[in-house]
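lol ok so funny story. i was supposed to be doing the assay writeup but got distracted and ended up predicting the structure for this chain instead. priorities right. anyway since i did it might as well share w the group, maybe its usefull for someone
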Amino acid sequence: MPAIIKSNEPFYHLSVAGCERDLAVCPLKDGLSIASFVILGDVELSVNCAAELLKRVPPHDIMITAESKGIPLLHEMARQSGATEYLVARKSPKLYMSSFFSVEVQSITTERRQTLYLDGADAKLLEGKRVLIVDDVISTGESMKAVEALIEKAGGQLAGRAAILAEGDAADRDDIIYLEVLPLIEKDTTMPQTPAETPAAEEPSETLTTEESNEPKANPGKNEIIEVDGVKFRRLAVRTHVVTPADDIWDVAKKYAAPHMQDGDFLVCSEKSVACSQRRAIPVVDIHPRPLAKFLVKFVYKSPYGIGLGIPETMEMALQECGTMRILFAAACSAVGKLIGKRGWFYKIAGYKAESIDGPTPYTIAPYNKCVVLGPAEPDKTAKRMADAIGHPVAIVDVNDLQGKVLGASGPEIDRTLVPRIMKDNPLGQSGQSTPMGIVRRA
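and the output, tada:
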């Protein structure tokens, strides 16, 4: 398998350890895309890959991985091998750490530095031991280098490096153990694009290969024009790459939206894409709900339009974002409200931080389909910076099939009452459409 292949398909078919998976293809940068390999929540994949890797890895005394996608694989390898413990290098210092070692790391999906931490007590378990590093995917190898540095600081001895997949040029390395190659993907400009079916609840995904596919237009199934108080507005969805923490959202708007905007236009931007660029998308596996969160979700109304705070993980993040006392007070007021037939008191008191928390859903584009996404930080300031970058007013909106709300506005030219009415049918898309922004223009 070559390190780079050419394809316009929205999915890459992977066969590994007896498992067949279709991986969503996500644009990265410089014309390259990656196939999103997600082991979190996939029990069969974890069990089978762990068994195959254990057949190939060298003798070792203990195993370690970097938080977080390698954790289910490492856990299953420990279980199958009879190991009683394993270690995880964390992405932030934790309260239980009385002391810690730390090193910086940079991965393929981010241009920003991150830091890995190892508790001092855990480090003692590595001293003089043969240590096997385990991960789901090896790409640049920077994460493994950081873990190696932690092992060296702790006085351990590197036994080997193992992963399910070697991505891109990593497949040429002779110092790693892996099961299959995961190629990087270039657009195939010699072949016409062929539409393929995407998962349920998603519209057909198109690769950004032509000027026509980049042209803002209404999403399938949505009306381009809406009339509000006798005035007609066009809503033109703007297709972008998958926004990640490597992006500044104002640069994304400048690249994809600004070239198509005219005098009098304003831009609407999904709050989720802003939050994802601000590192406010937290993998569910990294959230550990406290007993109070598990208790409170029993009283949450389960809406058919979204998870909201209806699972322990989203409730836990609400407790962290808003504070325990505020959430408890909101819950108490909500209970009183229900007794007298009044709804909505909880979010009025808890505030927009609680209301804007989104839970994981299968129709959200990977990797955020397995994340809890918080509301954006400093939405007004962010909207202003986006407006400065593109030269047009900006509204950061939270819109679903029930209601819409402006969370951030670049200035008074954004009518916080009018914008939700223009966007009331939720014309943006964040699954197969990959259109988290939209241009609003008078018709």
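The longest strand covers residues 19-29. The first helix runs from residue 43 to 54.
back to the writeup now i swear
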